[in-house]
Amino acid sequence: MPYTLADLDEMSLEQAQDLSFTDRDQLLDLIIAAGRHQSTDIDSYRVGLYCDYFEEDLLRMHKVGAIKVHCRGTTSSGFDGLIVGESNEEQYRAAFRHVQTHLEAAGTSFSRVVTLVVFLTDMDNWSLLNEVYREFVPNPPCRAVIGTTGLAQSPLAIEIVECIAYRVRD
Predict the structure, then answer these.
(1) pLDDT tens series, the chain, 170 aa
(2) Which of 9, 43, 70, 110 has the fewest CB atoms within 10 Å of its CB?
(3) Domains present along the chain, CATH in parentheses
(4) Which letter does DSSP use for residue 109 in this model?
(5) Non-local CB neighbours of 126 within 8 Å, separated by 6+ positions
(6) Strand pairing of 66-71 and 53-54?
(7) Which of 159, 156, 92, 96 is nearest to 127 (CA)?
């Protein structure tokens, strides 16, 4: 039987940490979902793209053994320094795939991302970025997209500057 946040709130720290990894992992998803908020009930064009703020419930996270994961700034450049993709769309996908690799190596995924900051060299590609973003990011984190005149290598079109997610300790 899956646990609820109310169940978790009633547990002592020791009881919660004695739960199986699977139970704690499922509870972490509930904690993250409960932490995502909008400032208003008014629907806007941004629905599903990002939340306005995230409340990090440290007590609940401590009970399930949550670990915060920070990914480094990531571009469409591979580990060999060569840029992956010739079009902006290909570069966007490559950058998101690279972050996905980091998240998976850390034992988490895009579904648990709570903060995402992206630099774009061409803000006219806002809708294209959102299209690719939706392929990877199922739950809306706090997000900022910032236009810039250039990145480390002149042909780069995107850098995912900050990505924060959570996972449950083993």
Answers:
(1) 799 999 999 999 999 999 999 999 999 999 999 999 988 887 666 666 888 889 999 999 999 999 999 999 899 988 788 888 889 999 999 999 999 999 999 999 999 999 999 999 999 999 999 999 999 999 999 999 999 998 988 889 999 999 999 999 99
(2) 43
(3) 5-168 (3.30.1330.40)
(4) -
(5) 120, 145
(6) unpaired
(7) 92
| 3-state DSSP assignment of residue 143 | strand
Q: Which tokens hold the place of 142?
A: 């706090």
DSSP string, 22-91: HHHHHHHHHHHHHHEE-S-S---TTTTT--SEE---HHHHHHHTEEEEEEPPEESB-TTSPBP-SSHHHH
Backbone dihedral angles phi then psi of residue 96, each to the nearest 5 degrees:
-65, -35
CB 103 within 8 Å of CB 113: yes
Q: Hey, what are 2's tokens?
A: 């899956």
pLDDT of res. 28: 98
pTM value is: 0.92
Of 164, 159, 163, 110, nearest to 137 by C-alpha is 110
169 Cα distance to chain centroid:
18
